[in-house]
Specification:
homodimer; Beta-galactosidase, Chain A, domain 5; Glycosyltransferase; 2 domains; ten-stranded antiparallel beta sheet; 18 helices; glycosyltransferase activity (chains A, B); hydrolase (chains A, B); 6-hairpin_glycosidase_sf (chains A, B); hydrolase activity, hydrolyzing O-glycosyl compounds (chains A, B)
């Protein structure tokens, strides 16, 4: 586990001042750079030691067999796995005759800094070789947000106290040896050397390698080119082979003299384009990067980020950890999505191979809310990606004997890759999550064009799915049976409240969207009768309620299931120590489910129901999923448990900076990092939008003295500045001179001419703060 | 599919008069010989052509990996698979220089006869070689019921119309090439050559091969020895290698002269005994067989079977197909169990590799009722096998965080081998099925000693399992959640009626057994309080009932689930065309579940409930499982639909003789074959025992004019002889001069001095005969 001392707490940087080899994997994830198209883990330039070498291209994957000891109809036969592509980060250094390797000699100084405003990772090393020669190395790396195909590294070596002969080998390496993460020999075989060489070429200062995946037949190109600066004589040569290219730079440095190399990298891949076309594309991109130059790349990087922070930054006064963490999260979510451009946003972004590089409902459920309010163009592109997979989702629905479209539980390209159906296929809610993300985008941006372009078709086909999934019983009540909600410890149940509410929302939203786009709806074959059926199903959807306890059962009968014995079964996460056959029929919860329903479908619950439900589910939630703390933060804040909410917000934000789930090595948790924003903005800011109105209702925990955040709403830019007494709303840039919002459940008008300050609504919790299951109390952040 | 013409309908034989190569696999299963220890498929002596060569030793298996694309805690990692052991059936023949092969030359006559009273398979072939030489071959094969380790073949060749040189090679062959049935390359690799040679030796007329499985490390020995008779000069030599041994017999035959060879075979295996010990064991067994001689083996075989038929035969007048089929079924069930002696009775017996050779709840649920009434020693041994796996079942329960013992869903040796938990681990009822089989044995035989020996411990540990699986809700109602009943199209549900009734029976039976054996119960740590808890749980077990419809839902909420659309989804079996995610939440049933509850827990249902339940479930049952028709037969007869019951009885009985499930090639369906007996005896004979009393209540369908069957009950031998008017009970051999039974719901006293004839209870169905789902009407046997 990472302690608070490994990374210095600063508002805009993640700084490491000592190299802890036992945390190499984790730091590689934390220091990963990406623009949503290219992803590079924070591996050391010299390649070794490493935790997991990683360079990824969004949606560049290999197909692998999914084995079943007992197969069933409709089980996916092929999985998709992100592959480690040609590594362009490698810059090896020989000091006289000795390779620079932190495991040998002496590392006199070490620092790595991830700069959240500059968008760079800078490393400084002062090293004494085993023979006693000292060098100072400074490398700065970026993956360009402005130039999508481009990454670059500035690498400088300085001789310290005597003349030093320096040899730098800057490389492209394909099919690196990677520690295997799977124990299935067939799968390991597929991924052992995933890339087939199809071409290589080189010039004096650069090279291009072309490869293709064996089964998925995706072509990729990686190109490099170098600028070299050094006071004296220098020799630069380049060679290349099937899986390698090396530019070698040799020179002598007197004390204080420096060798500076800028390495420009370009990547491209395609399932369609020819080898020459892809080769030219990479060559052009690397030339473009050289033309822009290092300083130019740095400048455009900063400008891109300045623009982002201007309307996304969150300021958390009084809690420097959360301050750093929420910006860290925003930065990584942006990195995962900025230039994804109609590709998926994987659960781990492009920071590691966790979950095989798959995208889940995490995207629409947790990441897109943040992006919709802060970088709506990126949200729109992510939604366009989903819409682009609609035909595959239609095929899947047809295979399952359903109408409409069934989007996959996990995928890279759009095909269902989930091999365990009770927590995959049965998690139908992913379809309603997607529909809601389209609707949220329309409401928040005020832009109907995405709906016209592709959203309507998604809404219609998902509504059709729900109608074929649900059914009216003989009493006219509409049920969805055999369904799994967000909570993966309770599966294949009747009437999961979250799913039923979200499905009803999907059905109604589809009907309303059809009225907005009647011609397109007609093309899709939607009739008045079909729309009426959607509304009827939505109106008749069963929402179970336990009158005796005054709480909503998460699904039919949930509150009468066996209670989990937390006194004797407390090894977490439970799924590694207890079988599903025991977890499913017990009142034990992996992650917010009913509680998430109260956040996303806030209008369907009274304040008293919210209070009682939070109290009930807090006592039974293990938070074994990383998709939980943020939601618990929001709803604990909602019902007045502000200190507990602060604890959860902290957990969500620090998940990777403290490696709270012990798997940051596999990549960062994008949904939780986005959830950190949600915890602050929806939790302590009170942001809701499920009624189609911007609703805010701030209230701060004692540990946060002031919270400022920015939102985009229908071309307005809004700043919310809350303290313990009041909140000041500043609105600018909008299409009108005022904006009506809901503050603390009341409508107020905000003028664009001047800030508006209003008092907060004091919140008294109905119930005392609840207990969590033993051993699952959150990390405490409260200031007593 | 096998038509009615492939096998001639005779009361005591299965006779094939033409060799249809397209049905070779199926005929190999039908003509399989076994004694429960050794199993031999009905392969042709010359080895080729074959469907699936198969020689099996009960519980001799190899371990193989169980692959999971997404694994979970508690999933079994290793499977067990029956292996094809050294083949001793092979007797090759050269006619002059041409190998006898039915695919070449001309097969002028062919006959195979399985004799159900002799316990032999006899084959007659009259063949003309491609060169025109004619020979007549007669082979008779048996697997000895009297000498457990022994099989034997009498092989005769006769020259027909000219002098013929005849060469016979009688072989042992290990690691035969077998068509692969799995598409997982790792598993196929394990089973490709499962046997490692550890020794071989030969004499002039015999040989022994010793092998060991690679992973499970089970040692086996196969031995052969030959008697040769021929008029003229003969040369007999034997050779052997690692995987083969051959005795070669060469002679010349004039027309009408015969070569007769008797091949004695012996098999043994052990996980403990040394190589020399096992070698000696096989050598002694083969010597013993020679000592007995062919005629002696034939005689003891017939005596064993005479004794069996004396108290097991069922006579079905008016329905010759069912007459043949029920005897065929009884014969094969006996073959699967007679000398199993504390080994499992697999679902396919030892007739094929279907289900990997695993034993399921089929044994206790379907096979043991028959054996308990007809061959109680075999039932006792099967129960002793279960009890011998108790420690493994305890370990499994502990792994699943449960108390007591959890017996496996499928296994060879006792470890859980089910890789799909919703239809495996969650099928907890297997534990109650086992408990009930112990209790039935005690009631029917009147023998408490098995309970004392091992049954009590099983009852106690399974009762403990139920207590930890179920729970009382806040209203004091006892539920079992997350459970799968017999019907595999509805899984992981609440309060499956079958399971709850069977669990309650298990709990009560355990408590009563503890009172019978107080000392042993105390040793097992059973207290009065624990017994009280068992009884309370049993009394409070929830049995859902739908008052509106007047039927029992199969599980909580079942009658409000979506109805299956049979008009558009009618490709059977549904599991090959529809995903579980769609089947589970619909009112579609694979196999009798609630209907089986009404058979096994008859006392818990009123006649009206039975009638309404049969009517309701008939309309929704696809009979996609082979464990259904027999139960439907019993309960349709119970509620007065006698013609429909006859249809189902016929389906159960003919399942393999007509290949109704299209997988007879993989082995016979022991449960359905046993079920054919149950359909007649419990269906048309009305046999019930769940109240602890022998209850009979015969009523025949129009197509059966007279039904006679035999039962053992507490040392009595009872013959029941029913026609359409009355029934005659004949009781003999018992410990008293009379026996009280329940006839047609009334108690009557049967004297052993003379038969008792009583009138039948006329049965008027409450409801008209129900419809089945379209396409799932049974084969019609009724005589209109």
């Amino acid at each position: 586990m990472i302690s608070g001392n490994n990374f210095i707490v600063e508002p805009w940087h993640i700084r490491e001042t000592a190299l802890d080899l036992s945390l190499l994997d984790e730091s590689e994830s934390l220091f990963a750079l990406s623009n949503g198209h290219i992803g590079m883990r924070g591996n050391l330039e010299e390649g070794e030691p490493h935790g997991l070498p990683g360079t990824y291209l969004n949606s560049y994957y290999e197909v692998r067999p999914l084995p079943y000891a007992e197969a069933g109809f409709g089980y996916p036969e092929a999985g998709q796995t992100v592959v480690n592509v040609t590594n362009g980060k490698i810059v090896r250094l020989l000091v006289d005759d000795e390779p620079f390797d932190v495991r040998y000699g002496e590392l006199l100084e070490h620092e790595r800094v991830l700069d959240l405003r500059a968008g760079t990772l800078t490393r400084t090393a002062h090293w004494r070789s085993p023979a006693g020669k000292q060098v100072k190395i400074v490398s700065t790396r970026l993956v360009s947000l402005a130039q999508r195909s481009v990454a670059a590294i500035e690498y400088t070596v300085e001789a310290v106290d005597e003349f030093t002969r320096v040899t730098v080998q800057s490389e492209l390496v394909a099919n690196e040896q990677v520690p295997s993460s799977v124990d299935d020999p067939r799968v390991a075989a597929v991924l052992d050397k995933p890339l087939e060489a199809v071409g290589h070429e080189h010039s004096e200062r650069g090279a291009i390698l072309l490869h293709r995946t064996r089964a998925s037949q995706l072509l990729m190109a990686a190109a490099m080119s170098h600028d070299v600066e050094v006071p004296g004589r220098v020799e630069v040569t380049t060679g290349a082979g099937e899986d390698w290219a090396t530019t070698t730079v040799i020179c002598g440095l007197r004390p204080g003299q420096r060798l500076r190399i800028v390495k420009y990298l370009a990547y491209g891949w395609s399932s369609l384009r020819s080898r020459p076309a892809l080769r030219d594309q990479a060559a052009a991109a690397v030339s473009g990067a050289r033309y822009t130059g290092w300083e130019g790349l740095l400048k455009s990087q900063r400008e891109y980020l300045d623009d982002f922070w201007d309307c996304a930054d969150v300021e958390v006064e009084g809690d420097p950890d959360s301050q750093q963490a929420v910006r860290f999260g925003l930065f990584h979510v942006l990195q995962a999505s900025a230039r994804a451009e109609r590709r998926a946003i994987p659960g781990k972004g492009l920071t590691g191979t966790g979950y095989d590089g798959h995208a889940f409902w995490d995207t629409e459920g947790f990441v897109l809310p943040l992006l919709t309010y802060t970088a709506p163009y990126a949200a729109a592109d992510a939604l366009r990606w989903r819409a682009s997979t609609l035909d595959l989702a239609r095929e899947r629905a047809a295979q399952l004997d359903l109408t409409g479209a069934a989007f996959p539980w996990r995928t890279i390209r759009g095909e269902e890759c989930s091999a365990y159906w009770p927590a995959g296929t049965a998690g139908w809610h992913v379809n309603a999550d997607i529909a809601m993300a389209f609707e949220r985008y329309r409401i928040v941006t005020g832009d109907d064009s995405l709906e016209a372009e592709c959203g309507l078709e998604v809404l219609v086909e998902t509504a059709r799915l729900w109608l074929s999934l649900g059914h009216h019983d003989r009493h006219g009540v509409w049920h969805i049976d055999g369904v799994t909600g967000p909570d993966e410890y309770t599966a294949v149940v009747r009437d999961n409240v979250f799913t039923n509410l979200m499905a009803a929302h999907n059905l109604r939203t589809a009907a309303e969207a059809c009225l907005r786009h009647p011609d397109r709806a007609e093309e899709l074959g939607v009739t008045d009768a079909e729309m009426a059926d959607w509304r009827t199903a939505a109106d008749d959807a069963f929402i179970p309620f336990d009158d005796e306890l005054g709480v909503h059962p998460q699904c039919a009968g949930f509150t009468t299931l066996r209670e989990w014995d937390f006194t004797s079964n407390t090894e977490y996460p439970l799924l590694l120590h207890e079988p599903y056959v025991r977890l499913y029929p017990a009142q034990v919860i992996k992650q917010a489910d009913l509680v998430l329903a109260m956040q996303l479908q806030s209008h369907a619950f009274t304040p008293e129901q919210k209070a009682r439900n939070v109290d009930y589910y807090e006592r039974r939630t293990t938070r074994d999923s990383s998709l939980s703390a943020c939601t618990q933060a929001v709803m604990c804040a909602d019902v007045g448990h502000l200190e507990l909410a602060h604890d959860y917000a902290y957990e969500a934000a620090l998940i990777d900076l403290r490696d709270l789930h012990h798997n940051t090595r596999d990549g960062l948790h994008m949904a939780s990092l986005a959830g950190a924003w949600t915890a602050l903005v929806a939790g302590f800011g009170g942001l809701r939008d499920d009624d189609g109105v911007l609703s805010l209702d701030p209230q701060l925990p004692s540990g946060i003295s002031r919270l400022r955040f920015r939102l985009r709403w229908r071309d307005f830019r809004i700043k919310v500045d809350a303290n313990h007494k009041d909140v000041t709303y500043t609105v600018r840039d909008g299409p009108h001179s005022f904006l009506t919002i809901r503050h603390a459940r009341e409508e107020i008008k905000l003028g664009t001419d001047r800030p508006t300050t209003v008092a907060l609504r004091p919140r008294e919790p109905l119930l005392p703060e609840p207990q969590q299951p033993p051993g699952r109390e959150p990390l405490r952040r409260r200031k007593l």
